[in-house]
Design a protein that fits this description.
heterodimer; A: three-stranded antiparallel sheet; 4 helices
Chain lengths: 213, 183
């Protein structure tokens, strides 16, 4: 019942991780589970994998909560600066609607992004759509520069009122929402927050685009 | 006909631990998984005593078949009383998954600490392996490193996590978690 060639073969195939993540092909599950019945080493790895899965899930959930908090804070900052600008210009700015996140009549702008600090770090900027781009409603592909190899991204899309349209997390520096979303004509804003495994953070800043029929 | 197959205590314990994982994955409920593991081992030992398995090499598939029957019995019994809360807890690909309960919070804390001491690259390999469920070949392609290096890094990282989990482990040196009580 000790480790044997089966263990070695299963490890090369990454069977434990796929079993725990639910991606092991159905046909391979019986053989894998029969091996588990006899192999303490692989059972041990299953327990570690299950624990790591929970740790990573909690980590992502926390990153998402922080992104949402930042989103709320961002609107408050925008509202504050919008009101100040309105006073200076003598222009009336509408207040937020009751029951909705604070919103400015002037759409939010965060033109300048922030970069991760450290060696070997690329600038964190968007590739497309560039600011004020015009898109058809069925070609929603977002691409940004990866600022670091281990970056994890929180992507946010809002309408011009600042209401959340879509939010999600990814490890890729590309996100294609063409099949998931069909946006109504109008103005939209998007930005990406990055976080590395060693807790460095950066943001692309908000970018505006328009959707036309 | 030869003598019935007899199992040592270590073999029974090993089978119990394996069935417990299989049942936890199927049911997502640690309490139910323990019941299934106990019932399975009871049925296995009875079947072996009656000489229903002749070739010891077939023991793993024999035990697994019985475990799946016990799990199916469990589903039949519980399906009449399943609650909406239980339905809402069905895990998706990006939640912890049904095996979440295999590791206690205190052990997860040790895993977190051990993870924090690994390099970002090693953490990424572990994430892609155990969270995304990617095989090493795909991880290697994604990270631009040869597969042997991925195996080596993963193996080294696992060794450190094992050591972290082994801290303050039970003195018997066996896997933590529930133990068989029927024997």
């Amino acid at each position: 019942m000790a480790e044997d060639l089966t263990c070695h073969r299963l490890r090369i195939a990454g069977a434990v991780g796929r079993y725990v993540a639910g991606s092991l092909p159905k046909a391979e599950i019986p053989g894998f589970e029969e091996h588990l019945l006899c192999c303490p080493g692989c059972r041990d790895e299953v327990r570690i994998a299950a624990g790591l899965r929970t740790v990573f899930t909690e980590h992502d959930a926390e990153a998402e909560r922080q992104a949402r908090r930042r989103l709320g804070g961002w609107f408050r900052v925008v509202l504050g600066s919008g009101l100040a600008a309105a006073v200076l210009a003598g222009v009336l700015i509408l207040g937020p609607e009751k029951g909705r996140e604070a919103v400015s009549s002037r759409p939010p702008h965060r033109d300048r992004g922030s970069s991760l600090q450290g060696e070997g770090v690329a600038a964190f900027t968007v590739v497309e759509p560039q600011n004020e781009a015009v898109l058809p409603p069925d070609a929603l592909k977002f691409i940004w520069h990866a600022p670091a190899e281990d970056a994890f991204y929180s992507f946010t899309l809002t309408d011009e009122a600042g209401d959340l349209v879509w939010q999600g997390t990814t490890r890729d520096s590309t996100l294609d929402l063409s099949t998931e979303l069909r946006l109504q004509p109008g103005r939209y804003f998007w930005y990406v927050d990055a976080r590395t495994d060693d807790a460095r953070t950066a943001s692309t800043g908000a970018h505006e685009f328009r959707v036309i029929r | 006909m030869g003598d019935p197959i007899r199992l040592s205590d270590d073999e029974v314990e090993s089978l119990w631990a394996g069935v417990h994982i299989v049942a936890t994955r199927a049911l997502g409920d640690p309490g139910a998984a323990e019941e299934v593991a106990q019932e399975t081992l009871t049925r296995v030992l009875e079947a072996l005593a009656r000489g229903r398995l002749r070739d010891p090499a077939n023991l793993p598939s024999f035990v697994r078949r019985i475990a799946l029957n016990v799990i199916a019995d469990h589903f039949r019994t519980k399906s009449r009383t399943i609650s909406l809360d239980a339905v809402r807890r069905v895990p998706t690909a990006h939640q912890s998954g049904p095996l979440h309960s295999l590791v206690a919070e205190e052990e997860r804390e040790r895993l977190r600490d051990a993870l924090a001491e690994l390099s970002g690259r090693d953490r990424e390999i572990l994430r892609l392996s155990y969270y995304e469920g990617l095989p090493p070949r795909e991880i290697a392609a994604r990270l631009g490193e040869p597969p042997p290096r991925i195996w080596k890094r993963k193996s080294r990282a696992l060794k450190r996590l094992r050591a972290a989990l082994a801290k303050r482990a039970p003195e018997c040196g066996q896997e933590s978690g529930p133990s068989p009580t029927l024997l």
